[in-house]
């Protein structure tokens, strides 16, 4: 389960480019991404955190009950852990992650809302 960052650290928050969860960089470093660590491999890697997350995001959604939340379904986060998520994230995942998704038959959809259903 992701933690809710305290207000004092809010200017340092980063959003994962793949799942849009918002965490402090130290949380990404200590635990990785709670949703997509297998692909993003951020745990213990400041360089990986800087290319797989961004400080450029809009809006914050607190998701408590992921499966019952219509907002989580709308944001495509209903299968993820509860936590804070960005409404829109600016940036793209690294090419190696996108290639890995493609090899698994998963279509990458950027979280900047440029690829609408």
Gross morphology: globular
Structural class of the helices, strands and pairings?
A: alpha+beta
Taking all Cα atoms into account, the compactness measure Rg is: 13 Å
- Beta-strand share of residues: 15-25%
Oligomer: single chain
Query: Largest sheet, described in full?
Result: 3 strands, antiparallel
Question: How would you describe this protein?
Answer:
It comes from Suillus plorans. Keywords: Centromere, Nucleus, Transcription. It is found in: Chromosome, Centromere; Nucleus. By secondary structure, this protein is an alpha+beta fold. 27% of the residues lie in helices and 18% in strands. Strand 1 (14-16) and strand 2 form a beta hairpin. The radius of gyration is 13 Å and the shape is globular.
Quick structural summary:
This protein is 27% helix and 18% strand. With 117 residues, it is α+β, with helices and mostly antiparallel strands.
Question: Would you spell out the secondary-structure blueprint of this structure?
Answer:
Layout: E1 14-16, E2 22-23, H1 25-31, H2 37-40, H3 46-52, E3 53-54, E4 57-63, H4 70-74, E5 83-89, H5 95-103
Antiparallel strand pairs: 1-2, 1-3, 4-5
